Amino acid sequence: MFKRDILNELEMWKKNPRRKPLLLRGARQVGKTTVVNEFGKSYNNYLCYNLEKTDHKAILEQDLPLDILVEQLFLFLGQQCREGSTLIFIDEIQNSPKVISKLRYFYEDRPDLHVIAAGSLLESIVNVDFSFPVGRVDYLPMRPCSFREFVRALGKNNLLEMAAVPGMADVVHNELMSYFNRYLLVGGMPAAVQAYLEERDLLAFDDIYETLLQAYRDDAEKYARAGKLSDVIRFILEHGWSAAGSTVTLSGFANSDYRSREVGEAFRLMEKAMLLELVYPTTNTAVPAMTEIKRQPKLIWLDTGLVNYAANIRNDIIGAKDIMDVWRGRIAEHVVAQELLTLNYKISQRRQFWVKGGGGESAEVDFVWIVDSRIIPIEVKAGRNSHLRSIHSFIDLSPTDVAVRVWSGPLSIDDVQTTIKRKKFRLINLPFYLVCDMERIIRQYL
Fold it and tell me: Is 0.85 topped by the overall pTM?
């Protein structure tokens, strides 16, 4: 298995003296089970239970004192309890609300035991009547592989370190852009990444993608609360990929007859399942960046490789000289949105873009990101600095004097003046492959 950055997050959780049972959140097939199995090797005792198995579910649902239950967990798996640390992994925990409720007792009565639970997709978010252990569990999101993880798996991580140093960028730029274009096609789903590492074939993943998409459709049909809701979710999974990276209207989404309330409910369920995010704008240029939920959102799916396959645009990417030219720049914007989520492991992290509020000329910036209590505008755009009108508009209204343009060129810094107020600011021209290092680079110029 190629190393995932989330293993470092799990190590920090393990060492935390205030550690609680951990709920690992993520969509189907983002590698939750594989990562925990790898992490379990660092323990003296590792117990793995999968609640899709009837006998595993039955033993964990027993009404026994916790100490006796733990003894039976070892006995059932035929493992002797060795002295030292113990990790209990409960996979597919959404199948048993009763076991979910028991997590609180691990926290209260056996804090010496390390417990990780995981579930996938829509199963984990269906409203059921049980006592959820609020305040007694920690959360950690798990998402598709980042470009940094992809490059590390290829054995080329040193290139990213070189590219982050101005002056060195030209030496490795073309090579890194070549790798990024491959990542754009493969995506970050671990099965697809592993297949590429083994076969080095950019179009050998149809079966992997198709299996994933069918699994998502099956989940919708099996776990949505009502027939109409299942229908809407299946419709979005069939037709929504072509709307990736674009602003969407809920009512009549993708030329359907579904109402705003029906589409909105389906999207909310899919968001909780971490399949997608409706990214809403803010009109603020200084913190707090309040979300304008009454405005139209952008649709961002969990993985760009899946978008390429489901929207049937892979051939356009392969034939493009610059990914900015593909799909009117939407696929470039989508992959940047995906990379932004790799900058931290906050379960509550939401992406935003910016629109100019009030009257006057309209303006929109692709994304904004908060760094050290400053809202930083981010445009995914090629071209001359004078053509970045939306960034100029943002800077004129903002206390910040730093902006980011993500592009296909090498790392560089420009001193720029806005076209109207002549306000000076620094424009960081950030290549796609360095979005993963964006916060550190921005801090050098704040």
Answer: yes
- Domains of the chain, by residue range, sit at 6-141, 206-443
pLDDT beyond 90 at 357: no
Q: In what order do the strands lie in the sheet with 138-141?
A: 45-50, 86-91, 114-118, 22-25, 138-141
- Distance between first and last Cα of the chain: 38
Rounded Cα distance, 152 and 156, in Å: 6
| CA proximity to 277, closest of 233, 242, 245, 305 | 245
CATH superfamily of 6-141: P-loop containing nucleotide triphosphate hydrolases (3.40.50.300)
Tokens for 201? 């074939």
Residue 57 to residues 68, 73, 144: CA-CA distances in angstroms? Answer: 16, 11, 28
Interval 159-191: pLDDT, tens: 988 887 767 777 799 999 999 999 999 999 999
pLDDT digit string (tens) for 97-130? 899 999 999 999 999 999 999 986 544 444 444 5
Separation of alpha carbons 337 and 302, rounded Å: 9
- In degrees, to the nearest 5, what angle opens at C-alpha 275 toward C-alphas 270 and 276? 85
